[in-house]
Specification:
With 120 residues, the chain is mainly beta. The protein has one helix and ten strands. The strands form three sheets. A five-stranded antiparallel beta sheet has the order 4-5-6-10-9, covered by helices on one side. The chain has a three-stranded antiparallel beta sheet with strand order 1-2-3, with no helix packed on it. The two termini are 20 Å apart. The model has no long low-confidence stretch (mean pLDDT 88).
Length: 120
């Protein structure tokens, strides 16, 4: 299902925040491309880290309707990133970094090449 706050066109990712389209630069990454469709809280893209050469999955939180306006749930973002960052389990992707860029909340994590849960 398309998300009205996300757009991928001509190789560019755009997120609509506070009524304006923001284009995250992902300066640390190259070869940026979406992995799938946006989910309930965000979209996951794949990028190659420019320094390490490592392929990472990058989650970008998307705004949702809250209190009459589209906004990112910052509290949920922080709780999710902090909780997963503390976990050490081979079945859970490791979080490498988290940041905010032009109003977009992102985190990079281990990229696991495989099939989606639905396909499995």
């Amino acid at each position: 299902m398309p998300n009205p706050n996300y757009e991928y066109r001509n190789g560019k990712i755009k997120v609509k925040i506070d009524g304006s389209w923001i284009e995250p630069s992902f300066e640390r990454y190259e070869n940026i491309k979406p992995i799938g469709e946006p989910g309930a809280n965000g979209v996951v893209i794949k990028g190659t880290h420019k320094i390490t050469g490592r392929d990472d999955a990058i989650k970008v939180w998307l705004p949702r309707q809250r209190n009459g306006k589209n906004e990112i749930n910052k509290k949920q973002y922080l709780a999710e990133v902090r909780k997963i960052a503390k976990l050490k389990d081979p079945r859970i992707a490791t979080i490498h970094d988290a940041w905010m860029e032009n109003g977009c909340y992102c985190c990079s994590m281990e990229f696991i090449d495989g099939v989606t849960y639905e396909k499995w």
